[in-house]
Design a protein that fits this description.
Length: 130
């Protein structure tokens, strides 16, 4: 029998962030196993393969429509779910375009798997050496 702390990732044991059910609906390919009465969490550890979890149930990048750059450096992994920017777009020109678009509209709280704004992730990727 495996024991777990409800808000800690069963894979890496990092504390998770409670996530809105809508985030799961917007990002998971298969929602047939989801239970609206369960609490789901986002694993905040970028080194862990788990994206979402609830108890021992886990979801990884393979379960998402689009890989998240928070957990993958694949050039096609998504940074911005509102405007479609990917890791391969992480340059100053695209970041400036993103900021202009973001000032008019964004829905990160639902579209981004983490439920948070993607600006910080974009900035972090800009700082990495090419």
């Amino acid at each position: 029998m495996q024991f777990f702390v409800p808000n800690h990732c069963p894979n890496c044991h990092s504390e998770g962030k409670k996530i809105k059910f809508e985030n799961l609906l917007c990002n998971l390919k298969d929602i047939s196993t989801l239970n609206r009465n369960k609490t789901y969490y986002f694993c905040k550890n970028p080194a862990c393969e788990v994206i979402y979890f609830s108890g021992l149930e886990i979801f990884t990048n393979n379960d998402l429509f689009r890989k998240t750059a928070y957990k993958s450096k694949d050039p096609d992994a998504t940074i911005c779910y509102c405007f479609g920017y990917k890791v391969k777009d992480a340059d100053q020109k695209h970041f400036e375009e993103y900021l202009i678009k973001k000032s008019h509209f964004c829905a990160c709280s639902i579209r981004n798997p983490s439920g948070k704004c993607c600006k910080k992730l974009f900035e972090t990727l800009l700082e990495l050496p090419s």
